[in-house]
Amino acid sequence: MSTAIVIGAGPNGLAAAVALAAAGVQVTVLEAAEEVGGGARSSEAIVPGLLHDHCSAFHPMAVGSPFLHSLDLDRYGLSWRWPEIDCVHPLDDGSAGVLYRSIEDTAAGLGRDGTRWRRIFAGPSARFDALSTDIMGPVLRVPRHPLTLARFGAPTVLPASVTAQAFRTEQGRALFGGVAAHAFRPLHYPMTSAIGLGIITAGHRHGWPVAAGGSQAISTALAAVLDDLGGKIETGTRIESAAQLPPADITMFDLAPGAIAHILGDRLRPRMARAFRRFRHGPAAFKVDFAIEGGVPWTNPHARRAGTVHLGGTYIELAAGERDIHAGRMPARPFVLVGQQYLADPQRSVGDIHPVWTYAHVPHGYSGDATAAIATQIERFAPGFRERIVGQQVRSTRQLSEYNANYVGGDIVSGAKDIRQLLFGPRITLSPYKLRVPGMYICSAATPPGPGAHGMCGYNAAVTALAELAR
């Protein structure tokens, strides 16, 4: 029987392990932490019984993941819960851009931008399941649905600033800009439309659900599938050098490129080693979890029903903040993402005390404390918020990288999403998962299709490894 070692038990490492085990490979996963999940972990915090997601929280890409869907993870305890409203981007005048799963409901709320919203998203959303088989894999290959991919792909090369100009209202521009800002890139850069268009399209097809019982449920379900297939997981096992790697036909790394270069040393070809060591990381997240009595008192009523709330003001203000953090400057009003997962999954609350998940975009490796800036941004759109805080837990950029070594400098999206790294990962190649060392592969979110709990980076890498093993 062929054997495989997978280093790292985040969603991609677990997905790779499951795909390999399902093909009859004997798999062992080695995880440095004491529990599996990487960024898809959850735990009680602040108040006993109050459940917080550690990083990954809402899952428009995971719920529609072709690989996860194939596993029937509901049999292993994973179920999805949807908020009434996916996302709200409030403005200072009390209005907001409101994103529903329904395109028609979203368009109706955007007034004169409704027709444009419908024109941009209706077609791709209707064809998203076919489209996802192409956009969730490596770029340089023959697509299964070339015409559908071409229609979707052409606008993605544009800067988000150009796409935002399609909308005439402040609400429409801010709503699109806030989703595009998930790329952690200045919004006037090429291809920053790709993230916004991709997430919104996926959301209109599948919504922005949470995992019942926390994002840990995704990781736990994948681990249970692996166990059923005969795979093993060893936690508390940190690999720091090639000498520690057990012999195996396949070795898969769910790690940041720099960590792989460190472990393999001169086993990597010089050109590959240089590319991995020079892999660029982007701006960071500064995370604060709050325990809030009675929920957040948003001025805009839609925000009180939304799973996600984006706080960045107008598109112009939002874009200025993203330029600042990319340049290493901390803006006075950073872009803040607020998660109210308990609205879809009430078991996360304790009585009238609710978990509120937040993070701000900050410069890479930011050493300051953004807690007050986050609270101020929330208070700006929800006067009286501070009076409802029962407790809080902070994870700085340094603490995020200690929590998960893949979050280098607090970079939670696994690398700067410039054109090259967004499309290809650490290097331009026909096969982004191969390390050019026999039997060795990278399967982390630094490879296509990128971050998220969808597991497709791991699955794609496993398919590549199995094809080579069969030769």
TrEMBL record:
This is NAD(P)/FAD-dependent oxidoreductase. Pfam families: NAD_binding_8 (PF13450).
